[in-house]
Amino acid sequence: MNFTRKRSLRFLIPLILLVGLVIFLSLRWKVWFSNLPEVSYTPSDTIDRLTLTPGQDICHDVTVSWRAGSEPAKSWVVYTSDSMPEIHLPAMASRVESRGGVDVFYSAHLKGLDNQREYKIQVYTDGCSNTDSLTIAFPHPDSTLRLMYLGDLQDIDLAEAKKKLDSISRYYLSTDLYLQVGDLIERPMNSYWDLVYRSVGETLMKRRFVATPGNHEVIKGFRKKIDPRWKAQFNYPLNGPAGQEGLSYYIDHPHCRIVSLNSNHLDRPLELYRQLSWLDDVLGSASQPFLIVMMHHSVKPVRGTRSHPIMYSLVRPILERHKVDLVLAGHDHAYARTTHPDKDAYRSTTPVYLISSFSGKCYENGFSPIFDRLGSGTAFYSLIELTDRSLDFSTYTIDQQLTDHFRLLRPDKAEGQGRVPSRFEELGLDLPEYLLFDQFAGNEKGRKKRAAYQEALKKRLSNKH
After folding, report:
1. What does the pLDDT look like over 34-72, one tens digit per residue?
2. From the CA atom positions of the chain, what is the Rg in Å?
3. How confident is the model at residue 305 (pLDDT cuts 50, 70, 90)?
4. pLDDT digits (tens, 9 = 90+) for 417-455
5. Which residues are bridge partners to 291 per DSSP?
6. What is the phi/psi pair of residue 231, to 5°?
7. Do residues 240 and 153 both lie within one domain?
8. HEC secondary structure over 13-57
9. Do 216 and 130 share a structural domain?
10. Is residue 334 within 8 Å of residue 362, measured between CB atoms?
11. Residue at which a domain ends, from 117, 137, 157
């Protein structure tokens, strides 16, 4: 009898585990493997999706990209400055097949330009109507470098997207680079690419756009991949690890090295090894005063119980070993800032981990004490100003309210000394935190979650005072 019972249990336990696995996979199937169908489309014979991206040398190189029709045609760029003669540069064509149609994208790399000049750029494709010219000036190596950091956009409403852009319009002319940390679109579909270019394309993407891919740019499946239109539109330097060229990359300015890490493919052992090795190398070889790393998924998430074990256990040690200054992330649709505690000196130091969102979609934030600053329920943007000795960081709500402010200072370096962490200065202790999230369900469960959130908020406010 006992033998029969043991034998039954031997088969019953695996069966229960198998049934549980099937139920779990069925619940997660759409999230992990299913894509909404994309409506068929045919691109027009008009030049559109004009995009400027920096080359590896921010001060001298730029790439211009555009889309035109569905069949390759002769294309070129004409650029000039002041009294210099026009220069004609042939463009490379890239035919991209998506789930909804076929696009042809073009790109031309302009290298070694004079950062003392202002250039006019015009693009041409045979048989396609023309566009207005672009005007571009380069940041000077000795001047203050001005960056704007934006989290997820992921808009589905054109009017709402343009309203948010109006709030940052006063910074357009003074911003050298826009850093966007993924989830630029809601889904990898032509309709959403159209929406984002109609809303932000006329401003952000014509002023040197620096992006990292997010999970909403991913086509799901057993072998998930970044939407091929992402790489065709955003032609970044091909200095990334094998298999991730143009998705993971770095760009240089005398004040900083900016590294973009594609965090969507870190669940594959080979990709993980290649990207971690590459990240270690490009951070270790940098000679600039400041190091900035941008990626979609955060090391220390702010959304409830969410966690990223690979980011925390494997990526974080590399960032901290190389004393990275800023780690910019998104994904959580809220704002958070965490400093790295210096246990020996009992003070905050770098890396400074940041999460931000520029989206109308908001998620509930957690209240872990590791977060120095929090924000939720609205969109945020951050301004970063760098010299060779200091980095000033300010975050605003969409309503122009300053909600975070700190400064990093580079210490004097002794001869033969390795990289030392920047000195952190807190400048925002008296600034209000905008914790406005209130998108709870109207049922009993939602009411309980709202009550728990309000209680946690009261506790945080009382601890701050």
Report:
1. 778 899 999 988 999 999 999 999 999 999 999 999 999
2. 24
3. confident
4. 788 999 999 999 999 999 999 999 989 999 999 999 999
5. 257
6. -70, -30
7. yes
8. HHHHHHHHHHHHHHHHHHHHHCCCCCCCCCCCCECEEEEEEECCE
9. no
10. yes
11. 137
The pTM assigned to this predicted structure is: 0.92
Q: Which pLDDT tens digit goes with each residue over 367-397?
A: 999 999 999 999 999 999 999 999 999 999 9
pLDDT of 91-109, one tens digit each?
Answer: 999 999 999 999 999 999 9
Q: How far is CA 270 from CA 69, 248, 345, in A?
A: 37, 15, 38
Asked if the structure places residue 457 within a domain, the reply is: no
Assess contact for 335 and 357: CB atoms under 8 A. Answer: yes
In which residue are the tokens 């992921």 written?
154
Treating both helix axes as pointing N-terminal to C-terminal, what angle do 158-168 and 190-199 enclose, rounded to 10 degrees? 30
Domain count for the chain: 2
Give the integer Cα–Cα distance in Å for 227 and 192: 12
Q: Which amino acid is at 287?
A: S
Same domain (yes/no): 107, 231: no
**94: β partners:** 105
Token pair 């109609």: residue: 198
- DSSP at 128: S
Asked if residue 194 lies in contact with residue 223, where contact means CB atoms within 8 angstroms, the answer is no
pLDDT of residue 307: 86
| Residue bearing tokens 């031997």 | 10
Distance between CA 61 and CA 56 in Å, rounded? 7
Structure tokens at 136: 């571009």
Q: Do 64 and 90 meet the contact criterion of CB atoms below 8 Å apart?
A: no
CB distance 59 to 213 below 8 Å:
no
Q: Are 377 and 363 in contact (CB under 8 A)?
A: no
DSSP state of 323: T
Q: Is 43 a member of any domain?
A: no
